[in-house]
Amino acid sequence: MLFFKNVKIMFSADVVLCATYIKNRCLSNSIKNKTRYEIWYGHVPLVKHLRVFGSTYYALIPKVHRKKLAARSFKCIFLRYSNTSKAYRLYDEVNKKFVVSRDVIFLESSKTDNVVERKLDCLDRFTMQNHFKNLIIRFHILKGGFLY
């Protein structure tokens, strides 16, 4: 898992915990097509919350920690599932901190990451071009000049 997602070796313990978490929710032939989770807890586990290890995620910043025009989320890497709650354990590369959050946006494939970043770049360029164009038009109108 570390090799395929280009995740740092310092997260090897998280890799083991994530793999164990997933393996306990997979069917096993040795225990008559039941999961280890099902044997232990007595009911079938939910698997709709499972995510791709090492993918890019955006975690929501709570309202009490952000200002009006500040960013609402920050970019993280998914490491594993939280032991204490129904949440994900993420790593914030910018601040070098571990974060546990339930409110995340998923970008699970590397193709998706590149496409989204390219779309955001194009969107930023497009809005900036329109913004500068509007400023130039307003400047010419205020100055009394002619527009081409």
Task: Characterise the protein shown here.
- The protein has two domains: 107 residues, SH3 type barrels, CATH 2.30.30; 40 residues, no CATH class.
- The chain has 148 residues and is of the alpha+beta class.
- It has a five-stranded antiparallel sheet. Strands 1-2 form a two-stranded antiparallel ribbon.
- It contains four helices and seven strands, in the order H-H-E-E-H-E-E-E-E-E-H.
What name does CATH use for the topology of the largest domain?
SH3 type barrels
What is the name of the CATH architecture of the largest domain? Roll
Helix-strand sequence? HHEEHEEEEEH
Query: Strands of the biggest beta sheet: in what spatial order?
Result: 6-5-4-3-7
Helix content, binned percent: 25-40%
Q: How many domains make up the 3D coordinates?
A: 2
Uncertain ranges: 122-128
> Which class of the largest domain in CATH terms?
Mainly Beta
Number of helices: 4
Q: Average the pLDDT over all residues and give the rounded result.
A: 76
What is the gyration radius calculated from CA atoms?
23 Å
Number of strands: 7
Structural classification: alpha+beta
Shape: elongated
Distance between the termini: 58 Å
User: How much of the polypeptide forms β-strand, as a percent range?
Assistant: 15-25%
Main sheet, how many strands, which sense, barrel?
Answer: 5 strands, antiparallel
Descriptive terms for the model:
five-stranded antiparallel β-sheet; 22% strand; elongated; alpha+beta; 4 helices; SH3 type barrels; 2 domains; 148 residues; two-stranded antiparallel sheet
